[in-house]
From TrEMBL:
This is Tubulin polymerization promoting protein family member 2. Belongs to the TPPP family. It comes from Cavia porcellus (Guinea pig). SUPFAM superfamilies: EF-hand. GO terms for biological process: microtubule bundle formation; microtubule polymerization; positive regulation of protein polymerization; regulation of flagellated sperm motility. Keywords: Cytoplasm.
Length: 171
């Protein structure tokens, strides 16, 4: 059974990365986790110290850390954040901060559902030749609604004697 902290870890590890299994977390999401869970307080624990701790616990040329390494990182950050507590107590405090947290999506642009699109697709407001392209229900007529359709007969447009080739040969 995964602990609350581990569940939070997995949620953040997979955040914004569709290819991620959630087993390892990259530096960006690690920093986000620290920020969203209030582990980073801007005084004792800054974004700089979070980056340093991340670099310290990760393998030499790895870009991500496992949950095991994550716990080591949290021990270090716990020592910074909760000065005077022993590493395990500090770690528990950090894990308490993480409980039930999910990656925050504040400031993320949400798609608008109203506005221009409705006006653009409302065929009752069309004027001129455009309104001829839709039936009463507002459904498009497709090619049938267009006056100028091209004929692929092989003759150049504007050529008046189409279909007279055979007659010319037989003379």
């Amino acid at each position: 059974m995964a602990s609350e902290a581990e569940k939070t870890f997995h949620r953040f590890a997979a955040f914004g990365d569709t290819a991620s299994t959630g087993a390892e977390i990259n530096n960006k999401n690690f920093a986000k986790l620290c920020k969203d869970c209030n582990i980073m307080d801007g005084k004792l624990v800054t974004s700089n110290s979070v980056d340093i701790v991340f670099s310290k616990v990760k393998d030499k040329n790895a870009r991500t850390i496992t949950f095991q390494q994550f716990q080591e990182a949290m021990k270090e950050l716990g020592q910074m954040r909760f000065k005077g507590k022993n590493p395990d107590e500090a770690l528990q405090e950090i894990f308490k901060l993480m409980e039930g947290k999910e990656p925050a999506t504040t400031g993320v642009t949400k798609p608008t559902t109203v506005g221009a699109v409705d006006r653009l697709t409302d065929t009752s407001k069309y004027t001129g030749s455009h309104k001829e392209r839709f039936d009463e229900s507002g459904k498009g007529k497709g090619l049938a609604g267009r006056e100028e359709t091209t004929e692929n007969t092989g003759y150049v447009s504007g050529y008046k004697g189409a279909g007279t080739y055979d007659k010319k040969i037989n003379k």
